[in-house]
Design goal:
single chain, 223 residues, alpha/beta, Aminopeptidase, six-stranded mixed beta sheet, 8 strands, globular, binds zinc ion
Length: 223
């Protein structure tokens, strides 16, 4: 009987351990998610067979899917209220003691076949967060990787918490707009990539990599 109990306990441990490992990077983290625009501001607008797709709706859909992935590993998610002022949105995230902030956007162009992945940062600690997220997004979406731009854009100019503004793809691209009105495979792929990028970020910090950047690595833009 004891032997059976031991085997049952062992099996339970084997079953639980991978789950514990999977959630470990997010232990105790608070992740602020901003869905860009809203509050009467639609952002970019794409079209599929004449039907408009507003960027604000795509931003919100990605946030909802990413939130449910993070809820699954017991990370704390703070949904930034869609305030008119970007400064106030960042303040809300800081007041919630968020560790990081992702401002989710989608790009726009008058060319309906322009499509690539790009992220924006401002402060030094933004880039460490942006690197794993940008590379996961570009890989998952299979689009040209236009990298991370540091030019004081959007919400990343405010506050001091690490933040990144993502433009995962162009909602004005006809295929992207039609996917949003259909299967929403791109929303799922984007949310999963952001989740993976966040896991990489927090894992590197829990390994002692956070905040430590050699001068050489910094020159090469690796941190
Ligand atoms: Zn936008």
């Amino acid at each position: 009987m004891k032997k059976v109990l031991f085997i049952v306990a062992l099996l339970a441990l084997v079953w639980v351990l991978p789950i514990a490992r999977a959630s470990a990077p997010f232990d105790g983290t608070i992740i602020a998610l901003d869905a860009g625009h809203g509050g009467g501001e639609s952002g970019a607008v794409g079209y599929c067979l004449g039907v408009p797709v507003a960027e604000e709706d795509v931003n919100r859909a990605v946030r909802a899917e990413l939130k449910s992935l993070l809820d699954g590993v017991a990370a704390s998610v703070f949904e930034v209220p869609q305030l008119a002022s970007r400064r106030d949105r960042v303040q809300a995230a800081e007041d919630a003691h968020a560790d990081v902030l992702i401002s989710i956007h989608h790009n726009g162009s008058s060319n309906t076949s322009t499509d690539y992945t790009q992220s924006f940062v401002t402060q030094k600690n933004d880039k460490e967060l942006a690197l794993p997220i940008q590379s996961a997004l570009a890989a998952a979406l299979g689009l040209p990787d236009r990298g991370i731009k540091s030019d004081g854009y959007g919400m990343t100019v405010y506050g001091s918490l690490p933040g990144v503004l993502t433009e995962a793809y162009f909602i004005t691209d006809t295929d992207e707009a039609c996917d949003f009105l259909g299967a929403r495979a791109r929303v799922s792929a984007e949310a999963r990539a952001m989740f993976d990028g966040l896991a990489t970020y927090f894992l590197s910090r829990s390994d002692g990599g956070g905040g430590s950047c050699s001068p050489d690595a910094e020159k090469q833009g690796k941190c």
